Amino acid sequence: MMSSETIAKLAGVTKVYGKGEAEVEALKGVDLELYAGEVVVVLGPSGSGKTTLLNIIGGIETATSGSVEINGQQLVGQSAEKLATIRRDNIAFVFQFYNLIPTLTAAENVRIIPELTHRASGADLSSRVDEALAAVGLQERAKNFPGQMSGGQQQRVAIARAIATQPRLMLCDEPTGALDLETGRQVLELLQQTAGRDGRCVVVVTHNSGIATMANRIIHVHGGAIAGVDTQEAQPASRVSW
Ligand SMILES: Nc1ncnc2c1ncn2[C@@H]1O[C@H](COP(=O)(O)OP(=O)(O)OP(=O)(O)O)[C@@H](O)[C@H]1O
Ligand SMILES: [Mg+2]
Question: SS in 3 state form for 6-39?
Answer without folding.
Answer: EEEEEEEEEEEECCHHHCEEEEEEEEEEEECCCE
